[in-house]
Amino acid sequence: MKANLQERVSAIHQQAVQVQTWTAWSWTVGVSLAAAITAELIDFLLRLRSWPLRILLTASVVAVVVWAVRRWLVPWWHSSFSNVQVARRLEQLHPRLGERLSSAIAFLQQATDDPREGSLELRYAVVADAESIAADLPLESSIDRRPARRALAFAVALAIAALAIGLWQPTNFGRALARLVWPVGGPMWPPRNQLELVTAPTAVALGESFEVQLIDRNGHLPDDATITLQFDEPARRTERHLLQQRGEKLVFRIEQVLTGFRYRVTGGDDDSLPWHELQVVQPPKLTDLVSATEPPAYSGLKPERGGRLVKMLAGSQLMIEGRLDRAASAVRLQTATKEPLPEVQLAADRLSFHSPANSPWQPTKSQHVWIELVDETGSVTGRDGPLELQVIPDSPPSLAWDQPGDHGAFTSQALIPISAVAKDDLAVQRVELHYASIGSEPQQPQVVVLFEQAKPPARNFGEGDSRPITHVWDVSQAVKAAEGASFSLQLVAYDFHGQQTSTPPRRISLISTQDMQHRLVQRQGVVLEQLGEILRLQRQARTLVNDVAARQQDEGKWQTRDLDALQSADLQQRQVQRLLKNPDDGLTKQIDLMLAELKANRLQDEGIASRMESLQKQVARLCDDVLPTLEEQLAAALKTARLKSEATGDCADDSPLSLDGVTEQQNLAVAALEAMLGELAQWDNFSRISREVALLKQEQQKLREQTENVRVTLALAERDAEPLNLARQTAQRQLEAARLYDKLQGRMESLLAKLRDSDPLAAGSLADALDAATRLAIGGQMRSAARQLQEARAGQAVQSQDQVLAGLSEVLDRLASRRDQDAKRQLASLTAAAAELNNLTQRSENLAREAAAAAQANDPQKRQLQRLTKDAQRLAEEVAELARKLERLKAKKPGDSLKKAGQALGGTSQSAAGGNGGEAEQQARSALEDLQKAKQELQQDIQQAQEDLVREQLARLEAELAGLLKRQQNLVTETERLDGFKQANNGALGRAQQASLRSLAQEQRQLADAVQQSSEAFSSGETFQLALDGVRQQMQRAHRGLVRSQTDDSVIAPQQQAVARLKQLITAARSQDSAPENEEPAEQGPQQQTGGQPEVRSIGELQLLAQLQTEINRRTTELETARVASGDFTAEQQTELQELAAEQGKLAEIILKLVEQPTADAAEDNNSPAPQPPADTPPPPQKKSGNPLDEELLKDLK
């Protein structure tokens, strides 16, 4: 037991000594390592080169080591304690022990037989007691090992750090350790900065710039990099400058060097760069520089010569020539990006050069090009320039589309104006219109060439090309051009480089003529409103001036307050001028747009066109004659008024201001505007009535269809409730239509009362329409149909509705008769009136014979005269009706004669009723004479109308043929181009050429169709139609050849023949001097005038006959020559021969008609007895023999 307690304390003693030892050594080693590592890092980072600093650093490490030894090892070495001291420390940590443990250890260390230590039993008892208490205590855990662990961890961490550094940077670690151990000697650190001069010039030209560029191969640019300059002239001096950082380089630059110097660069810890010497030399200089550009061939640009600024088109070739003031060993072209440039060729004398030396130079981008000069020593002594190259790419063309607007509406026969501006930086080659029908399936666009030129015009670079494009597109020539169709239009412009630009597509819709008329009526209403606003403003201006004039008259002097009134009047007058002549939305602009829309939609025959033309003329007279004078006089009055208002004192003048001229002109303006507004308002009402009648007719047509459905349903379903309900609903709609018609008829009657004095022609048409409406009882028929539907008599209702539709159609015809201004419709109407007049004349002759017989008969009862009364009265009414019709057709002379005839027939009726047979006979003969005179005058009007029709159709035909000729000429050019390509490639066409050939064939077919449509639309000459048919046949022949991929003479020949005949047609169409103008219409006999329409032919048409015969002769000769050469006709020649035979037959028929017509007319004149002329009528002039037109024709044919 004793041994156990003592062993425990001894073990604890040993452990305490071990802990103390580890702690002392760990701290000493750790601190020493920390000092050494810190010193090495300081040496590494600072790159110490001074040995005193290194000795100081080593001494610092030694000092730290000594301090650590003194701090931990020396105390550890001198520390010594016994087991009793250990026991006393344990007693402090465990108070239960008291002093028992130290006493027990002391007793255990004493000898048992030493009498000086006291009782042995007592010592045993103390030891036993201490041992018993210590047995329960953890004495071994009383030692604190944490300081030792911390010290050991510190030492181990530093050792690991030193080992890691040594493994990571063994060279640097070893060098640092060696330098630390041997501060006076030892290895040296490599420099941190490794500087290198990228550019270190040794020679520069006098006055040129000097620049050095410095880099650090270690990637650490020093902040203190300095260049040292040492100058010897004009005085010795040294300059130091800091280099400036530019990106990853340090740069120093002198803009102008005048003397040489030595220089050296240092920075950071690198001062190893050597000295350089810069020499200033006299360089060769550029005395002349010329640049020449050769644009690409497609551009059409002229070659240009210039200097240092070169503006060139992309793809152009550039050449540079220059001269030097002294010889150079080399000349190079340089750019800032060091791109490869063409070599420069020096001349033999080395005083001139040119570039490129070999291959052509085509710059691709804009840049600055420097000319680098190398002297004879091989040093670059200067750079001249820069040569500024501006390479401008060829931009695609641009298009600005003006007309038509997007979502426009036109009729199916419209001539749509195409207006745009095409621009290109060089030249526009072609502009096309691409159109396609919009439907459920995508359509292949059709192409119309609007503009084309074969080669670009010669011009200088930068001038550009701006070309207005105007074209009239006949939409009726398009495929699927019908009401309700829609087309997508797109303009495409091409330049000579093959670039193209397309405009966004625009959509147009084709609507019916009635819908277009409705739109025009609405726009007419807008014009009417604007005209009303102009009149209101003009009246206000007049009122203001009249008020000023009235106050002056009452007060006898001028008042300053009147100036405000005149200024207000001037403002009102300016507003009137703006509303009339504003180029954007003025009244004149609105009228111009309406007339253009009427012309585009081929609605010039509509009455609204004549009204707008009349309004346009009246507005022009107002703006040109009245308003300028009014504004001038008002401005003069206003100026005088201002002077009166500003005058004071003795200069004051309060005399009345003269406003008579202003008032007079304002009255004229108001009167003109009131006349225009009244006329247009009445016409607007008339147009709206016509439109409402048309809409009512459409509604009635729908009702008729619905009634037919009711009739069928009732027949199948007998008396079911559903068909009966449908019948009652239809009856209600029919009653509503009847009420609308009654209101419309009331408006027509009100308008008729207003129009009787202002517009007799319109009043006549409206009166005729009202008479037809009253006579046909349209409203009653509508109500009858409604009543029949209510009673389920659908069959009878359908019949009533048919009568309503017929009546509405007649009313519309009566209303539309006032718009019969077109030459063709005018001619047809006059011809119909002539037929009716022939009938009336025949009946008048019968009436005259009966009156003569009744006058000679002995009839006491006068029964024959009583019968003549009714006949004469009925005939007088019909003659009066025809007179009104001719008056509406603007046939004034025959209308007046018919009025006289109607009055005479009325006198005949009255005389017959009074039993005066002789007077009745005389009145009947007078009426017959007036009818015969009316026939002659009407025939003259028919002749004039036919001449007008011929002129109009020829003018329209000339315009159409001009467009067709241009298109055909383009086709000939394209065919010849394809044929030339085909011959150059052994008869083969490429894919692109084949596509062009297919497009060419399609265009040729479309052109033939267009010619056929023009022929069908022309009705004023068989000769023109025959010539147009010949053009169509030649185009069809060319189309057949193109379809067979032929481009030789078999295709080109008919194309050229079509071109020649089109030119003949255009020449003939321009000869509009009709031959009948040389003859007096009175030369025609009365019986001749009663026949059909006279044949009006122009000299141009007769000349065309001769040209057609000559052409037939030539083609026949060519065919015969071909037959003799080959022995027989080919299939194509056989077809051409048949066409020639047919054309010759038609030509013979036309000539036969011309030759036989005078003979037939003369025979008719001989066989038809002429009526006796009145006594006071001079005899007609002797008719000329022969026909000069026929003579001209026969002379040409010979």
Automatic annotation (TrEMBL):
Swiss-Prot/TrEMBL keywords: Membrane, Transmembrane, Transmembrane helix
Region (Disordered): 848-870, 893-926, 1068-1094, 1158-1198
Transmembrane segments: 21-39, 51-69, 151-168
UniProt keyword annotation of Transmembrane helix present: yes
Pro residues compositional bias, start-end: 1170-1182
Biased amino acid composition, Low complexity: 1083-1094
Membrane listed as a keyword: yes
The protein's name: Uncharacterized protein
